[in-house]
């Protein structure tokens, strides 16, 4: 069954004016004719023969919205994957009692919009669920949404592909991790293939080469097998770590990171926040913090995360520093809440990728992030200035004995309080959950979903330019991908 919306399209209206004075009417008509002719003479994008919606709408969209068409994928590729998840057994990667999932006995049968898992290994990537939930909300309730849903691809500025790519990957990883990178017998690969084959056969994709399509790839391994095919699209990613070409064993944390710039770039893609796993602490609830620096997580990581092991060894015996090995299960969650809320600073070293949901847990806990990740990319930059509430430390400095602790002790209480007040202002920007069952309902205007679409909106001129450049190439001419260095 194809994905259907509960929203309804609205008809547009036009108005006209009449003038009873013949001379004025003639002058007005002549002026309109001249203006119309000049418009077509100097604006090649307005050619009536152009069928690409990006040409028609790029300069005419209201400043408070972006026109979004939702590709008509079957339900089995989004909410149907939630049905599959809730019908499956416990996640083998979580220990006993670790999962906060809603008991299956409490889930109504044939639920149109099932809840997203509380399983922390999956919940941290839930942006795909909340973004689609907003678009599936009836239009009358979407007054605060920056994205305006349209029901014709020809009217859209971008096409949203409603594939729960993260959930698809995690379902495969939970059942047969060893087969994940293989294609045979890999359910996730079959779903990836189904999505790509569907969208590439649509007229919307053929018009733009996929450049105006939007995919949510918050899990570093989402759509692993088809990345080269969707590379022209706008990718919503938490960072570019999953796209690095690094040999984890040979890099030793010192090799320069080579990003496949032909596939990912800040010029076309959007960095989005992880979903935080810890509850928000209001500024009025903040209490005295005794610990200087706190970290909870896995000590052993790969690639650039090798720096974490070195930091661990340097900091584990420092006074006023807590370094805990832990897993995001029920016990670990409670420990993290306590640790982050009673600490002045929270360490955020690179892991397998440059960032993690730990950063956003720290923000929600009003614990000043100490970011040790030279290659990190952060969501909503240009809207958020992270230096106003975070401490950035170069890896080389962090690995000097006693350097980190000594540096953090130089921040007076007044400055820490300013950081915390600024952090409280930005907490809502990193919130996806709209508080409605199934994610269907009005969203907060200052939340993560709207800011994701605002960042996509900023890409529209670049998308338009890329489409034009591709179309003007003579037949048979192939231009190699260029480095989109930033």
From TrEMBL:
<keyword id="KW-0328">Glycosyltransferase</keyword>
<dbReference type="GO" id="GO:0016757">
    <property type="term" value="F:glycosyltransferase activity"/>
</dbReference>
<dbReference type="Pfam" id="PF03016">
    <property type="entry name" value="Exostosin_GT47"/>
</dbReference>
<protein>
    <recommendedName>
        <fullName>Exostosin GT47 domain-containing protein</fullName>
    </recommendedName>
</protein>
<dbReference type="InterPro" id="IPR004263">
    <property type="entry name" value="Exostosin"/>
</dbReference>
<dbReference type="InterPro" id="IPR040911">
    <property type="entry name" value="Exostosin_GT47"/>
</dbReference>
<keyword id="KW-0735">Signal-anchor</keyword>
<feature type="domain" description="Exostosin GT47">
    <location>
        <begin position="63"/>
        <end position="406"/>
    </location>
</feature>
<dbReference type="GO" id="GO:0000139">
    <property type="term" value="C:Golgi membrane"/>
</dbReference>
<keyword id="KW-0333">Golgi apparatus</keyword>
<comment type="similarity">
    <text>Belongs to the glycosyltransferase 47 family.</text>
</comment>
<keyword id="KW-0812">Transmembrane</keyword>
<keyword id="KW-0808">Transferase</keyword>
């Amino acid at each position: 069954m194809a994905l259907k919306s509960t929203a309804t399209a609205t008809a547009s209206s036009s108005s006209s004016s009449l003038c009873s004075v013949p001379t004025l009417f003639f002058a007005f008509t002549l002026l309109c004719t001249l203006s119309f002719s000049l418009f077509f003479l100097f604006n090649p994008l307005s050619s009536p023969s152009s069928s690409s919606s990006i040409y028609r709408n790029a300069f005419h969209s209201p400043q408070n919205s972006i026109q979004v068409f939702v590709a008509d994928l079957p339900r089995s590729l989004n909410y149907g994957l939630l049905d599959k998840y809730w019908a499956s057994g416990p996640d083998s990667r979580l220990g006993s009692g670790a999962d906060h999932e809603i008991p299956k006995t409490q889930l109504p049968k044939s639920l149109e919009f099932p809840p997203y898992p509380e399983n922390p290994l999956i919940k941290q990537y839930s942006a795909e669920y909340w973004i689609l939930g907003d678009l599936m909300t009836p239009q009358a309730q979407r007054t605060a949404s920056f994205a305006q849903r349209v029901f014709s691809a020809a009217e859209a500025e971008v096409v949203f592909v409603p594939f729960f790519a993260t959930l698809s990957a995690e379902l495969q990883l939970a059942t047969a991790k060893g087969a994940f990178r293989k294609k045979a017998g890999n359910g996730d690969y079959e779903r990836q293939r189904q999505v790509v084959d569907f969208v590439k056969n649509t007229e919307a994709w053929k018009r733009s080469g996929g450049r105006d399509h939007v995919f949510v790839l918050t899990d570093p391994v989402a759509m692993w097998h088809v990345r080269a095919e969707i590379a022209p699209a706008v990718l919503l990613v938490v960072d570019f770590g999953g796209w690095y070409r690094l040999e984890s064993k040979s890099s030793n944390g010192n090799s320069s990171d080579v990003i496949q710039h032909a596939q990912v770039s800040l010029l076309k893609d959007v960095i989005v926040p992880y979903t935080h796993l810890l509850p928000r602490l209001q500024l009025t609830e903040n209490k005295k913090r005794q610990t200087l620096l706190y970290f909870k997580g896995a000590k052993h990581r790969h690639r650039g995360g090798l720096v974490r092991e070195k930091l661990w060894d340097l900091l584990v015996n420092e006074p006023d520093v807590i370094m805990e090995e832990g897993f995001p299960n029920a016990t670990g969650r409670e420990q993290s809440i306590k640790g982050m809320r009673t600490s002045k600073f929270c360490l955020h070293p690179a892991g397998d990728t440059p960032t993690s949901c730990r950063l956003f847990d720290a923000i929600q806990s009003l614990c000043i992030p100490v970011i040790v990740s030279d290659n990190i990319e952060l969501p909503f930059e240009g809207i958020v200035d992270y230096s106003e509430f975070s401490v950035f430390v170069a890896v080389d400095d962090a690995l000097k004995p006693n350097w980190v602790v000594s540096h953090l002790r130089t921040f007076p209480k007044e400055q820490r309080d300013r950081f915390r007040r600024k952090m409280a202002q930005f907490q809502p920007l990193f919130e996806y959950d709209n508080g409605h069952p199934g994610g269907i309902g009005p969203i907060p205007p200052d939340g993560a979903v709207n800011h994701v679409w605002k960042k996509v909106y900023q890409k529209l001129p670049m998308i338009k330019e890329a489409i034009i450049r591709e179309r003007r190439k003579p037949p048979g001419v192939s231009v190699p991908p260029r480095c989109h260095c930033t």
